[in-house]
Design brief:
It is built from 22 helices and 22 strands. By secondary structure, the protein is α+β, with helices and mostly antiparallel strands. Among the domains are: 162 residues, no CATH class; 100 residues, Chitinase A, domain 3 (Roll); 94 residues, Chitinase A, domain 3, CATH 3.10.50. Strand 1 and strand 2 form a beta hairpin. Helix 4 crosses helix 15 and helix 13 crosses helix 15. 36% of the residues are buried. InterPro entries: PPIase_dom_sf, PPIase_PpiC, PrsA_foldase, Trigger_fact/SurA_dom_sf. Its EC number is 5.2.1.8. It comes from Deinococcus reticulitermitis. This is peptidylprolyl isomerase.
Length: 666
């Protein structure tokens, strides 16, 4: 029991340390979580580099690597080099931020309050338990409080930057509203009635009657457990007509089914809170576009946030550009060349790697393919697209200014708004909707389905007699059993189902069913040595949704596609006028050569001939993706630590170091 408590407390501290790490880098393009016990201000361990005099240790970097499954698997080759570039560049960014908030005044009482809250929430109020938990993580109360101080300092600095942002101007508000009108609509509503009962079988029977044309209001008045006095109306009546209701007026499963009926109609039987509900939508009322005045408060909040994002981005850009980096361990020295230049801005290769390796889809790919197979795919198919997106983003503020547009936000946010500006006026014709529908009818097919019970008889005549005599009264299972059959509930079936005999399933969806009660009976079907009859309910024949039902969906899909194409095309043309320079090909070629040069070489025996199949061995502590001896600082031997009696090698470099391209803008 004591051991279990220790494990739980260890997990709790793990969680609080990780949470601290995540919060500290909020507002930065820092996409992965440090590993358990990795502390921001830790100065102990093997120095890897210094950023503005602040030491970053090998242990810190490795803790971050090991905390990310994708990065942990990338140790060699091109992707190993990419992972090292990403890790080192982001540790540089983080160290620069920590240094920038050192002078922020943080009250001791606030630190105490935060630490106490964490201890209470993790059941570590006992001092001995708290100390023990931190020690197991390689930390102490003093170190944890330093980390908490940095966390609070960053929050205060962020708040200061946000507070200094000027209020949005009328021009900025209108510019955003004009490009995003579709986001500001009144809520959609429906006019309708419902039947609510406690028995599914009863609900199925009432639904069948409604589908057959029975008056829904009368059915509700006679049977519903709710609102029967107003014919099941979802809202009070005005001159005999139900008022419209919002989605929030209905339970979630009921609302989802009812609001999907944009052309009106009946839902199926919906189970909700132990009841069975049927809704008839008499009218669907789409949301209406709001005026600027109606949307102004919401627009102001969005634009204000965008301007705050721009302020944080500008601050972190300045820290990155001004960072002075000293590489101590040559194994962690990186080549971070300028991959593209546009509008006077240099884009470092690390930004390409960051967007790629922090993408969940790429992580999935790396889980399926070995890194050496994934690398050429990513180089050819993924990195070029990322570089183009980055060029668009870096150019966006310049383009917006040239066009006289009062756009706000981070680079990426302005690029999105420019794309929206370029897609204004894009429409979809009825002919385009019809053509898409005709070419893609398979997308709109409703597969056949039914609920099936099977009664098996040994004698064909016995089965035929039961089929002829049973009129749907009473329970099918009881009636078939009394007639000598054995009943199996097959549940939901479709034409390709595997949970019933194929011959019986074929009969379910063929002609020749005999209507009885709430369902129908199949003809007698021979199944092996026996004879079966299927009792079919909730039969849905295969059908294709009509154009009237899916037309709005098709139009919306086509419009989004055309707008994306038009917007990206417009932005690409605008960026082209700025004469951007794309260095990706040269950067990848230089990287491939560097990585190949760092690969272990075959050892040569004393006789002079290479030993067959004997790989070379890297120097102790060397990282195969580190760039090899050519990257080592003068006087070093390419190892992660200095030899005995030798001072550690150090080399001062800008935060981004060019390779076959101009230095990145830092």
């Amino acid at each position: 029991m004591h051991r279990e408590k220790q494990v739980n407390k260890k997990k709790a501290v793990n969680g609080l340390l990780i949470g601290l790490s995540v919060l500290l880098v909020a507002g930065m393009a820092y996409q992965f979580t440090p590993n358990v016990g990795e502390l921001f201000n830790r100065q102990t361990g093997t120095p890897a580099l210094k950023v503005n005099g602040r030491t970053v240790t090998v242990e810190e970097i490795e803790a971050v690597r090991n905390g990310n499954q994708a990065l942990a698997s990338l140790n060699t080759g091109v992707l190993g080099d990419d992972a090292k570039i990403l890790l080192t560049a982001q540790m540089i960014d983080r160290a620069a931020i920590l240094g920038a908030v050192e002078d922020v005044n943080v009250e001791r009482s606030e630190i105490d309050k935060r630490v106490d809250e964490i201890r209470k929430s993790n059941q570590l109020t006992d001092n001995a338990a708290w100390t023990d938990a931190l020690q197991r993580m390689g930390s102490s109360d003093a170190e944890f409080r330093k980390d908490m101080r940095s966390q609070i300092a960053f929050e205060l600095k962020s708040a200061e930057l946000r507070k200094a942002v000027p209020a949005p101007t009328e021009a900025e508000l209108r510019a955003y509203f004009d490009l995003n009108r579709e986001k500001y609509r009144t809520e959609e509503q429906i006019v309708g009635r419902q039947i609510v009962v406690s028995d599914r079988a009863k609900a199925e029977g009432l639904l069948a009657q409604a589908k057959a044309g029975a008056n829904f209001a009368q059915l509700a008045s006679a049977n519903s457990e709710q609102n029967k006095d107003r014919g099941g109306a979802l809202a009070p009546l005005d001159n005999g007509v139900p008022r419209p209701v919002l989605r929030a007026a209905l339970p979630t499963p009921v609302a989802d089914a009812a609001f999907a009926l944009t052309q009106g109609g009946l839902t199926g039987v919906i189970e909700s809170a132990g009841k069975y509900v049927i809704v008839k939508v008499e009218k669907f009322v789409p949301g209406q576009l709001k005026t600027f005045d109606q949307a102004k408060a919401d627009v102001t909040n969005v634009v204000r946030t965008q301007k705050e994002n721009a302020a944080l981005e500008k601050w972190t850009d300045g820290l990155r550009q001004g960072a002075k980096v000293e590489y101590i361990d040559p194994a962690w020295k990186i080549q971070n060349p300028t991959v593209a230049s546009v509008a006077g801005k240099n884009i470092p290769y690390s930004e390409v790697v960051s967007q790629m390796l922090t993408n969940p889809q790429i992580s999935g790919l790396l889980g399926q393919l070995p890194p050496d197979q994934a690398a050429p795919i990513l180089n050819a198919s993924v990195k070029p697209g990322i570089v183009q997106q980055l060029m668009d983003s870096y150019a966006a503020p310049n383009v917006a200014s040239k066009l006289g547009l009062s756009l706000t936000g981070s680079r990426g946010e302005i690029a999105q708004q420019l794309a929206a500006y370029g897609s204004r006026g894009v429409t979809v014709s009825d002919a385009e909707v019809l053509a898409f529908y005709q070419e893609n009818k398979g997308q709109f097919e409703i597969p056949a389905s039914a609920t099936l019970d099977e009664a098996v008889f040994k004698d064909k005549n016995q089965a035929a007699a039961f089929r002829a005599d049973w009129n749907g009264q009473g329970d099918f299972v009881a009636a078939a059993t009394k007639a000598g059959g054995i009943v199996s509930e097959r549940g939901q079936v479709s034409p390709d189902t595997q949970n019933a005999d194929p011959k019986l399933v074929a009969a379910v969806f063929a002609d020749g069913l005999r209507p009885v009660g709430e369902g129908s009976l199949t003809p007698v079907v021979q199944t092996g040595q026996n004879f079966s009859i299927g009792y079919v309910r909730e039969l849905q024949r295969a059908s294709t949704q009509p154009l009237e039902a899916v037309g709005p969906q098709i139009r919306e899909q086509l419009l989004a596609t055309k707008q994306a194409e038009a917007g990206q095309g417009f932005l690409a043309k605008q960026v082209a006028t700025l004469n951007p320079k794309n260095n990706l090909t040269q950067v990848l070629e230089a990287q491939a050569k560097r990585v190949a040069a760092a690969e272990p070489k075959p050892q040569t025996p004393a006789g002079g001939a290479p030993a067959s199949g004997t790989p070379g061995t890297p120097a102790p502590g060397a990282n195969p993706a580190a760039g090899g001896a050519s990257d080592a600082a003068p006087g070093s031997e390419g190892t992660g630590a200095a030899g005995e009696g030798t001072a550690p090698a150090q080399e001062t470099a800008p935060a981004n170091e060019g390779e076959g391209a101009a230095p990145a803008d830092r």
